[in-house]
Design brief:
- There is one protein chain.
- This protein has 275 residues and is an alpha/beta fold.
- It is built from eight helices and twelve strands.
- Strands 3-2-1-7-4-6-5 form a seven-stranded mixed β-sheet.
- Strand 11, helix 5 and strand 12 form a beta-alpha-beta unit.
- Helix 4 packs across helix 8.
- The longest helix is centred in the N-terminal third of the chain and has 17 residues.
- It is elongated.
- The termini are far apart.
């Protein structure tokens, strides 16, 4: 079995485990290089190349640096590793980026150039729903279509409100820390509001939101502050949840909340509060 086959066979198992990694592919070579177009390698989050091969040490540093950056921002990139005189001939410097290509210096005696596509493969982001309200059910239906996995936290008697989800947690025993991006929506509809919010605000998450009126949210925040919940976490709580779309009904409210989560993921964080 060749190295490319080994790489491609490993990809599904890493994705199934929810492990972040980079798939690096040589897309072009000029002059003599150790690796040829089509060569692939898997680079894991710790910087190790666990499968495949894309050439020797001449390109390794540039590839690993690009892999770290891709895992951090989730964006693919193309790097071109070239000898110093070729960089000079093209009028570019190592580390410079032009038209979507990042240039790096090679010191290989072969004097060859390699262009390598760096593709991050990240675990699906998680939407965690605390509660079983109609809005929570609508979010559970919508979110998977946009690439999210869904975890439901609700009492056992309420779990039947949801058809298919990725994971179920009884009551609000939400793990404090987990791998990957996590977005928590509390939609308890007056059934365990305070307990659900306490669990949500104690967990590591990029986004925590409460489905309910601003007045109700303020009352709950005051109660949680009296119980010692960190003031910064309370201030970061999105309440009411969702973008101001003039939404009416559970499905439209769910759309406004998922849209707000997408905005957070894409670095377009909306204002802290809606009018």
């Amino acid at each position: 079995m060749d190295r490319m086959s080994d790489v491609l066979e490993l990809v599904p198992s890493l994705k199934a485990k929810g492990e972040a990694f980079v798939l690096a592919t040589v897309v072009r070579t000029v002059a003599a290089t150790a690796a040829k177009a089509g060569a692939k390698a898997i680079i894991r989050a710790d910087g190790s190349i666990s499968e495949g091969w894309i050439g020797g040490g001449c390109a390794r540093g540039a590839v690993l640096k690009a892999a770290r950056e891709a895992l951090a921002d989730g964006r693919a990139r193309l790097i071109s590793v070239q000898p110093p005189d070729v960089l000079q001939e093209h009028g570019v410097a190592a580390g410079e980026e032009r038209e979507g290509v990042r240039f790096a210096r090679s010191t290989c005696p072969s004097h060859g150039t390699m262009d390598i596509f760096i593709e991050p493969v990240l675990p699906r982001p998680h939407i965690v729903l605390c509660g079983s309200s109609p809005v929570a059910v609508a979010i559970a239906d919508l979110a998977p279509r946009l690439g999210f996995s869904v975890t439901v936290c609700a009492p056992a008697a309420e779990q039947s409100a949801f058809a298919e989800v990725d994971r179920r947690i009884d009551d609000y025993a939400l793990p404090v820390g987990e791998e990957g991006e996590r977005f928590i929506v509390v939609s308890t509809q007056s059934r365990g509001d305070e307990a659900a919010l306490m669990a949500a605000l104690s967990a590591d998450a990029r986004y925590v939101a409460f489905v309910g009126s601003r007045r109700k949210a303020q009352t709950l925040k005051a109660a949680l502050a009296a119980r010692g919940v960190d003031a910064r976490r309370l201030a970061a709580l999105r309440a009411p949840a969702g973008l101001d779309l003039g939404a009416i009904g559970p499905e439209e409210i769910a759309l406004s909340i998922v849209a707000e989560i997408v905005a957070f993921r894409r670095g377009r964080e909306p204002p802290a509060a809606r009018p």
